[in-house]
Design brief:
This protein is mostly helical and 185 residues long. It contains six helices and no strands. Helix content is 72%, strand content 0%.
């Protein structure tokens, strides 16, 4: 038999539960990433694979071993006949490799930048929608407060908050302020 003063059960310690809408959003984003990954052409897949490998410590170790052997062989430390005593071939090999690797990195960076731009655009749209919804809620709550004769409904700041944000005006203001700051430098 429970007493009336019994404490409510404490939830078990561990991972806090997540709102279902957050889980749904995570699943939707992961699904979208998988779809985008599946839509990559073979050139993008190749560039990403090369970039991932060349950005690894394994790549560094392979080059240390290969270049080290090349140098030791051609300075005569291994007791073998040098095939590139002036290291011209090694320099040419390294230069050509650098050209190709930088191209692969640029391809991957361009694609990553395009994805970042799409995500930023999505973020902006979601933020603008949220701002619009909040503005509507401010108007609704203010009207309710006025009908209930709540003093805070007359706060002059509320009138400002009830205005919809005009993104183009915000951008113009930012650019204007940045120009003013640069002129004062």
């Amino acid at each position: 038999m429970k007493s009336e003063n019994a404490q409510p059960a404490v939830p078990p310690v561990g991972k806090p539960s997540m709102a279902r809408v957050v889980e749904r959003n995570i699943e939707a984003l992961l699904k979208r990433q998988q779809e985008e990954e599946g839509q990559k052409c073979w050139q993008d897949r190749l560039a990403d694979a090369v970039t991932a490998f060349t950005g690894s410590i394994t790549f560094v170790f392979i080059h240390l071993v290969l270049f080290g052997l090349w140098i030791f062989w051609n300075v005569g430390w291994l007791g073998l006949k040098p095939f590139d005593p002036s290291f011209v071939v090694l320099a040419m090999f390294a230069s050509v490799e650098a050209i190709f690797l930088s191209t692969f990195v640029l391809i991957s960076q361009n694609r990553t930048a395009a994805l970042a731009e799409k995500r930023a655009e999505l973020n902006l749209q979601v933020n603008l929608l949220g701002e619009h919804e909040i503005t509507r809620l401010v108007i609704l709550v203010t009207e309710m407060a006025r009908k209930m004769n709540i003093e805070a409904a007359n706060d002059p700041e509320i009138h400002e908050l009830a205005k919809d944000v005009q993104p183009e005006h915000v951008l113009e203001t930012i650019e204007k302020k940045q120009g003013q700051m640069e002129q004062t430098k």
